[in-house]
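The instructor's notes for this session suggest beginning with a concrete chain rather than abstract definitions. Hand out the sequence below and ask the class to guess, before any prediction is shown, which regions might be ordered.
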Amino acid sequence: MPNIEQHYIDSFNTNLELLVQQRGTKLRKSVDESTQEGEGARVLDQFGESTTTKNRSSNSDTIYSDTPRDARWVYPVTYDWNELVDKIDKVKTAVKDPTSKLMMAGAAALGRNIDDEISAAYFGDAKTGVRGGTTTSFPAGQQVGVTVGAGAATGLNFEKILAGLEILRGNELDMDFEELYMPISAKQLRNLENEIKVTSREYNAMYDTTTGKLKMIMGINLIHSERLPTDSNSYRRVPLYAKSGMHLGVWSDISGKITPEVPTKNYATQVHGDCMIGATRSEEEKVVEIKCSE
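After discussion, reveal the predicted structure:
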């Protein structure tokens, strides 16, 4: 039985990881990340607003503050990608070349899985409590309505972005130290383009003029994504958040394996990729939902 040389296997693993992190996922760079193990992970200990004692009397008993305490948990899900290739020489070409269609297809699939988990966690229920047994829903006070900036349901506009920033500032988010991100679809980008002129300062700030890629606006890093959730009214739920407000737990990062000559598949060669990850909000006060009509 012919074997695939080890350097092809090593190359496959390295190239698959590289492609997933650089091309397959768009949202991973915008969230905090940690390596985890076990059935679930306590990714953040939360301490609420504490109080002090003013003008205590002389020789009085010590008065203790009762600072609220909580914890945020994340739980993993697994994703697998498998392909069969009939001829060994085709496998060698596919796994050693990071630009091959097979490699890029696997990287894109696993990258979309990571983005979908992050996207679902923006406004989904989060698990809190000492053992993660409490469900915390996304609060209505962190939402920007679909009619903001217009008399009826409308798309993304600068008034909505300003309203979202106002919510974050009102929560006393330290804008000097936090990285802000806002994934938007092509539709929301067009909404913004319709509000500004090509020659305007805002337009030029939104793009990297050498590549034409999205950059930032109002100090917010923009990411193009077509995988954002919608609500029951089909309004797009655009997230505006601090990087520290979202968390990706990684139990098993992207990895690959090659199995030559699988007997049950007419001795074709199987290429495989997988990951085990989970995502959650770290703090509700650091994430804003902007509703947009499409």
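Then share the key points. The CA atoms of residues 142 and 262 lie 52 Å apart. The chain has a mean pLDDT of 83.
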